[in-house]
Amino acid sequence: MLSKREQSGHWGQRRYQSGFVLIDALIAIFLLTMSFAALYGLTEGAIQNSREALVTTEAANLAQELMEQLSARPWSENFAEGQCIPGGKVQGTKNGLQWSISSAWELENVLLKVTTEVTWPKKGHLTTYGLTTLFYVE
Questions:
Q1: What are 89-101's pLDDT values in tens digits?
Q2: Which of 48, 53, 49, 56 is nearest to 130 (CA)?
Q3: Can you list the positions of beta strands (E) in 3-124?
Q4: What's the pTM?
Q5: Distance, CA of 119 to CA of 49 (rounded, Å)
Q6: How many CB atoms lie within 10 A of CB 82?
Q7: Which of 48, 90, 91, 125 has minimal CB crowding within 10 Å?
Q8: Residues 88 and 102: beta-carbon distance below 8 Å
Q9: Of 68, 45, 134, 54, which Cα lies nearest the Cα of 97?
Q10: Tens digit of pLDDT for each residue in 42-94?
Q11: CA separation for the pair 132, 138 (Å, rounded)
């Protein structure tokens, strides 16, 4: 049989251990919560960057598509149908993106500088993606 002193020492130590486990559990829960909060923030940022990259890719594809449409047809048809106006600008909208085609002669009736620009709103301001090339016009 244990004396009262041995018993009280035994129980006192057990109380200390159970309190220590509770503090450990609270710290672990706190650290786990902070880790999830950090991961959520990183995930949210990655999703936003992914959306911005998608819109930029769509804008680049649209600018390239417009340029290819011009080069695939005879320039006389492009001029007659108003697809490209030397010294002027043609504008439109596609898939929520605003586009424009501007052109100017570099060498009169021979070398045409064509610029396609696609514009979209991003974080309160307009962002533009542009392509410029020179075409030999026969």
A1: 999 999 999 999 9
A2: 56
A3: 89-94, 97-107, 111-122
A4: 0.70
A5: 18
A6: 9
A7: 125
A8: yes
A9: 54
A10: 888 899 899 999 999 999 999 999 999 999 999 999 999 999 999 999 999 99
A11: 19
